[in-house]
Design a protein that fits this description.
- The structure is a single chain.
- The chain has 189 residues and is of the alpha+beta class.
- The chain has a single domain, classed as Sandwich (Immunoglobulin-like), CATH 2.60.40.10.
- It has three helices and nine strands; from the N terminus they run αββββββαβββα.
- It is elongated.
- It starts with a helix and ends with a helix.
- The chain binds 2-acetamido-2-deoxy-beta-D-glucopyranose.
Length: 189
């Protein structure tokens, strides 16, 4: 029974990990006047570039850039992002549609979205702008894993604790029930 319980815990933790990977939300930090890599990757393995469109948008749904069938399209780019976006065409075929945003200002802080069609993937990048007198080289990319603050860690532990309690309850209930049954059947002897 203990072993079974352990399996349930391991399983629950695994589910937790998977669900974390599916909700892709990344936080990156940039400095005023500096540049930052906004990461976006497709998990699709048989990605066909000639069918794939990627749309980068900011929190106000303004156009940062479109990658139409593997080609950068700046036709409907918001003037705010003119000459500030660098794309990496060599990376497209690997499903990497990250872009680099430069000349950062405080106004750039906030949410960025990357939509990939037709696979309907969406990634959210939170950009934090820091101002410093001597900006060190900005951390260009921080992965999902590294960015779990203490809060999300605590949240994870709460989830595991809840799962434990809810799996333990029926296990104890069942063993109590079996115990009672045995007592009843053994009593007449
Ligand atoms: C995507 O491409 C950029 C630019 O070359 C690179 O810095 C980044 O590490 C790549 N990301 C992945 C997940 O390969």
């Amino acid at each position: 029974m203990i072993i079974g319980f352990c399996f349930i815990i391991v399983f629950a933790v695994l589910i937790n990990k998977v669900s974390l990977q599916l909700t892709v939300e990344v936080t990156v930090e940039g400095f005023i006047g500096g540049s930052v890599l906004l990461p976006c990757s497709s998990t699709q393995h048989d990605l066909k570039l000639q069918d794939t469109d990627v749309f980068w948008r900011n929190k106000d749904k303004e156009n940062i850039c479109d990658l139409i069938k593997g080609t950068e399209s700046l036709e409907s780019q918001d003037p705010r992002y003119k000459n500030r976006v660098q794309t990496f065409p060599d990376e497209y075929k690997r499903g990497n549609f990250s872009i680099k945003l430069s000349d950062l200002t405080h106004a750039d802080a906030g949410e960025f979205n990357c939509f990939i069609t037709p696979s309907d993937e969406q990634e959210t990048v939170q950009l934090i702008i820091k101002s410093g007198p001597t900006p060190p080289p900005p951390p260009t990319e921080s992965t999902d894993q590294e960015n779990h603050g203490p809060e999300t860690q605590i949240l994870d532990w709460w989830k595991i604790l809840l799962i434990c309690v809810f799996t333990l309850l029926p296990v104890f209930g069942l063993s109590y029930f079996i115990f009672q049954q045995r007592k009843r059947t053994q009593a007449p002897i």
